[in-house]
Amino acid sequence: MMQAIQSGPCALRRTLFAGASGVAVALSLGAGAALAQTAPQTPEATTEVEEVIVTGFRGSLAQALNVKRNEAGAVDVIMAEDIADFPDQNLAEAIQRVPGVTITRDAGEGRNISVRGLGPDFTRIRINGMEALGTTGGTDSSGGTNRGRGFDFNVFASDLFNSITVRKTASADTEEGSLGATVDLQAARPFDYPGFTLAVSGQLGWNDLAQNADPRAAMLISNTWGDGKFGALLSVAFSSRKALEEGHSTVRWQGGNVGSGAGAVNAFTPRLPRYGILEHDQDRLGVTGSLQWRPTDRTEVSLDLLYADFSATRFEHFLQSPDFSAGGAGGRAGIVVVDSEVDSNGTMVYGLFDNVDVRSESRFDELDTVFTQLTLDVSHEFSDTFRVKGFLGSSTSEHDNPIQTTLLFDHAGSDGYSYDYRDNANLPMISYGFDVNDPASWTLSQIRLRPQTADNTYETAQATAEWDINPVLTLSAGLFLKSYTFETTELRRDPASCGLAPTGNAEGCLPAGVAGTPISDYSRIVGLADQWDIPAGSTLSWLIPDYHAADALFDFGSFPMSFIPSRGNNRSVEEDSQGGFVQVDFDTAMGAMPVRGNVGLRYIETDQYSTGYTLAAGAPVFTEANRSYDDLLPSMNVVFEPMDDFLIRLGAAKVMTRPGLGSLTPGGTVSVSGNNRTVNSGNPLLEPTRATTYDVAFEWYFAPESILSLALFKKDINSFVANDTVTAPFTGNALGLPDSVAVAACGATAGCSPGADWVFNQPVNTEGGELDGFEISYQQPLTFLPGVFRNFGVLANYTYVDSEIEYPNGTTNTLTNLSKRAYNGTLYYEDDRFSARVSGTYRDGYLTQVPGRNGNAIEGVVDTFNVDASASYNVTEELTLTLEGINLTDEVATQYVGDYNLVSVHHHTGRQVFAGFRYRF
C-alpha cells in the first residue's frame, strides 16, 4: 500500500532536541526559584559590583534583547557577533531563529521568509531605512523566477549587515504594506566604530554531496577623522558555491485511465516519474559604502551605498516518461498495462508497462541579479525639543536570465518500462526497458529557448518632524512620496520562423541542419553521485543533451525570437503612493506603574498602472489598466511595566498588503510546456489584502541577558487574494477563448489539444478569514551553574499559528505558506577563548496551493528539521579560527500533492562544512 510521506527520523531528532530544551528551561526556573528565596540585603549593606563586558555571540544576544525591551512595539533583533561577522551564513537562515519566522530554501540555502503564517508577499523589507525588493531565479519547484513582492534573501551576503530588526506590530511611522512583519536590514556605518577599524575573514567550505571546495571572504575598513566629525566605511563580501541537488520528482500526480479497452486501469499515477540531477554554480559579491558627516552635535548626514551581484549557472537533468501526463493515444490511453497494483486510495503504486515514451531532458540557465541602492539620510536638531529628518533613496534590482535553454531527447514506445513505490514512497524503483546510455536510442524532439528578465525599482522621499511637547509626550509627523516600478519580459522561439501562427508553439520545430546531426555529437552521460536509499534495479545514469556542445553546433543565439508566445510574462506595474502620518509617543506612569507607547494614524493614496497583452482575433493586443485606492491606517502600541523587569505589551492596527504583481496584469497567457498546459489571466482591479491586527505580549526579564515571554496575536483578514484554479478542457472555457488559441499554443506537441485538460488560473478577491496564534520565547546564559557550566546558554522559541480562509472553489483551509507549528533552539558555550553552539529549527508542513492542480485537492511541503553548528577559537585578541556546519542531517524538504501526501519533489543537497579565520586590526 502507498504510504504517506514519512518523517520518523525527523520526529526522533525533534524529540531529542525538545528534551534538551526542556532541561534548560527547568534549570532556569530552578535558578529563578533559588534567587527568589535569597534574603535581600539590608539598606546599610554595600556591594562592590564588578563590571562584566559581554562580547561574541552572547554579547550580540544581550544587545538584541536590550533593543527589544526598549521598543514600544513588538520587535525581535539579531545583531552581528563581531565586525563583519553575522551569526549565520545566510540572512534568511539567521532570521529563522526569530520567533514566528519560517523560511523556504532554494539549492539548499534560505531564499524567502514567512512571518506568523503569512508568506513572503505579506512581509516588507527595508534596507538602510528604505523599502526595497531583491529578486532572483530559482528552480521551478522553488518558485522559478521571482515576479512577486517576496524578497529573495539569497541575493545578499550576510556579512554586509550588522543588524536585523523584525517589526511584528505596526506603527504610523512605519511604512505600510505588511501583514506579517516589516524587516529592517542595516548595514554598518563608520560612526558605529571608534576610529580606525579593519577586519578580514576567509573560509573554505566542503559539501559532502557536491564534493567540492567553496571559498568565502569578507573585509571591512572604516575610519573617522576631525574629532569624529567625518567617517568613511567600505565593506566587501564574496562567496563562490557549487551545489549539487539530487533526487526524485513527479511534478504532480494525475487521475484517469491508463491504457484503453479491457486493459485500462483507472488510478492516480505520477505525471512525470523521474530522477534528476541539478548542478548549481553561484557567485555572490556584495559591497557597501558609507560616508557620515557630523558638522555639529545637532546635525548628522549619512550617505549609504549598497551593491550586490548574484550570478549563477544551473543545469537540470531529468530522465522521465511524459506519457502519464498526456491524454489520448499518444499519452495515457496508448500505454499498455502489463501488470499493476492499485492501493486502497486509488493510487497505482506499481506498474509494468509497454509502449511508453521516455524522455531525457536537460536545461541550462544563466542567471544574474544586480542590486544597487543609494540613500541619503539627514537629521538636524533645531533645539533640545524639536528635530527634523529628511530621507532620499533609490534602489534597483535587475534580474536577467539571458539563457534558459532546454533540450529534449525522446525514445518512443519502450516496452518493459516500470516504476515501483511500494518499498519507498519517496524514492521509487524506475527502469526504462532499453539502454538509456546509447545515443542510437534517442532522437532530438524539442529546443526550448526562454530568456527572461524581472526588474524592480523604488524611489523614495520622506520628511519627518518630532517635537517633545513635554517630558511625557512627543509629537511626530511626516510626509512621503514613493514610486515603485516592476517590469518583466520573456521571449520564446518565433512561430513565424516555422510557418506557424503568431501565438503558436515553435519549440518542436527543428531546423534541417539540427535534425540531421548525430546525437553522439552533442550528448554526454550523467549519473547520481549518491545512490541514497534508492531501491536496487533503478536506472541512475543516462544520456543527456550536452548544451554547450549543441550551442557550438547550432548557435542558439541566432534562432529568431518573439515575445508573442510568452506574452503573459511581458507586463509591468507602476505604483505611485503618497501620504503622511501623525503619531504621539508617550512615556509616563499610571500611579507607580510606568507606561509608554505610541498611537498614530497613517494615510496612503495609491495610483496603480499596469500593462499586459490580451488576445483579439488570435493576435496580441497591448492592454493598459489604471486604478486608485486609499487607506487610513490607525495604530497603537502600549507597554505597561506593572513590576520591575516585567512588561505587558498591547498592540492594535489596521494594515494592508497590495496585491501580488503577477495578479495585476490586465493580460493573460496560454502556455504549453511539455505536458503542462496552462491558461493564466490577471485581474488589475483586485483590492489589497486588508486586516485588523491585535497583539498582547508578556515579557519577564527575570535575570541579566534573559527573557521568558508569551506573545498572543490575532489578525482579522477582511479581504484576501486567492488564485482560482480550475482543471478542464480548453473547449468551452469560461474566459471565452476560442479553440484556435489552444491549437496554436499546442503546435506539434504530442497529446496537446483543445479537448485535453488545461489548468486555468485567475486571481480573485475572497472574503478572507481569521489568523491567530502565539509565541513562547526563552533566553538565558546559565551563569548560575557551577564551574565551566556557567559558560553555557540557551535560547529557544515555539510558535503556533492557525487560520481559516475560504478559497474560490468553496473549500476552507489554512493559508498557503502557513506552518501551524514551528520551533527552534540553540545551546551555546562561550568563554574568553572558545565559543560553540548547535541550533535546531523545525518547521511544520504547509500548503503551497489550494486547490491543487490536475484534480489534487491541495499541494504542499512536509515538515523539516534542520541542524546547524559552529565553533570558534580566539588564538589571540586579533585572530580567531572558525568552524561551521550547515544542514548536518542532510534534511530533505519534500513536496507533495493530494490528501494522501503523494510525493512531487524529494531532493537533497548534502551537508556543508566551513573552516576559516577572522582577523581584526
Tell me what the structure shows.
By secondary structure, the chain is mainly beta. Helix content is 7%, strand content 54%. The protein has 6 helices and 50 strands. Strand 8 and strand 9 form a beta hairpin. The longest helix has 29 residues, at 8-36. Mean pLDDT is 90; it is low at 1-52.
**Considering DSSP H and I runs of 4 or more, what fraction of the residues is helical?**
under 10%
The parts where pLDDT drops under 50 for at least 5 residues are 1-52
Specify the overall morphology. globular
Q: How far apart are the termini?
A: 64 Å
Summarize the structure.
This protein has 921 residues and is mostly beta strands.
Notable traits:
mainly beta; 5-stranded mixed sheet; globular; 921 residues; disordered N terminus; 22-stranded antiparallel barrel
Topology:
Layout: H1 8-36, H2 56-70, E1 75-79, H3 91-95, E2 101-106, E3 109-115, E4 123-127, E5 130-131, E6 161-167, E7 181-187, E8 197-207, E9 213-225, E10 230-249, E11 253-254, E12 257-258, E13 265-266, E14 269-270, E15 274-296, E16 299-320, E17 336-342, E18 348-354, E19 356-381, E20 386-414, E21 417-420, E22 429-431, E23 443-449, E24 452-468, E25 473-490, E26 492-493, H4 512-515, E27 523-527, E28 541-545, H5 547-554, E29 561-562, E30 571-590, E31 593-616, E32 619-643, E33 646-657, E34 668-673, E35 676-681, E36 689-700, E37 707-729, H6 739-746, E38 757-766, E39 769-781, E40 792-806, E41 812-813, E42 821-830, E43 834-843, E44 846-849, E45 859-861, E46 864-874, E47 879-886, E48 895-897, E49 902-908, E50 912-920
Parallel strand pairs: 4-7, 35-38
Antiparallel strand pairs: 1-6, 2-3, 4-5, 6-7, 8-9, 8-50, 9-10, 10-15, 10-49, 11-14, 12-13, 15-16, 16-19, 17-18, 18-21, 19-20, 20-23, 20-24, 21-22, 24-25, 25-30, 26-29, 27-28, 30-31, 31-32, 32-33, 33-36, 34-35, 36-37, 37-38, 37-39, 39-40, 40-41, 40-42, 42-43, 43-46, 44-45, 45-48, 46-47, 47-50, ...
